[in-house]
Design the sequence.
């Protein structure tokens, strides 16, 4: 199963279905939906794209998944990776340009991120030009095909094999905020 808890819509994908949940209602919807998914099928491996993103989304999803794993005696292996580390892999394989725009959980701002030198600047989402919109990660389509421990990530309809050792194997997920909370 793949869960992307880092975008404005939380994405859950297993072999049978794809579920998109709006981040604005995530406290009410995620736990209900993810419990249904785990009741339908015994899941032993869960791949999670974890941060940066909405503080509420990251916190709610992490807590729900950790609770499910606790109730299942920690039988689930979580394999986590940040969006940035995942995008660097895509960049190194020639599937993404060196500069992209990354959703960070704010309504008005994103990061304009240089994957080559690992630097970013805040950027107003409304200032992303028409040509650049295809490089905003909210517009990426992502999928996963898991067979044995082989992962095929599909980004914008182009597949690439990613080794499992790029992921951190965990029994408990810690929300990977990667930015400080907006306290204004």
Sequence:
């Amino acid at each position: 199963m793949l869960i992307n808890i880092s975008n404005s819509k939380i994405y859950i994908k297993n072999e049978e279905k794809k579920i998109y949940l709006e981040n604005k209602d995530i406290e009410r919807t995620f736990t209900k939906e993810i419990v249904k998914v785990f009741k339908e099928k015994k899941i032993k491996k869960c791949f999670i794209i974890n941060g940066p993103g909405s503080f509420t989304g990251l916190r709610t999803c992490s807590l729900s998944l950790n609770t499910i794993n606790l109730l299942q005696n920690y039988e689930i292996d979580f394999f986590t990776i940040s969006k940035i580390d995942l995008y660097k892999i895509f960049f190194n394989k020639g599937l993404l340009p060196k500069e992209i725009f990354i959703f960070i959980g704010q309504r008005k701002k994103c990061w304009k991120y240089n994957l080559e030198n690992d630097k970013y600047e805040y950027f107003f989402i409304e200032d992303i030009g028409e040509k650049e919109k295809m490089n905003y990660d909210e517009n990426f389509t992502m999928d996963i095909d898991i067979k044995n421990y082989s992962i095929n990530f599909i980004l914008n309809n182009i597949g690439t094999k990613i080794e499992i050792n790029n992921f951190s194997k965990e029994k408990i997920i810690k929300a990977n905020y990667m930015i400080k909370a907006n306290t204004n």
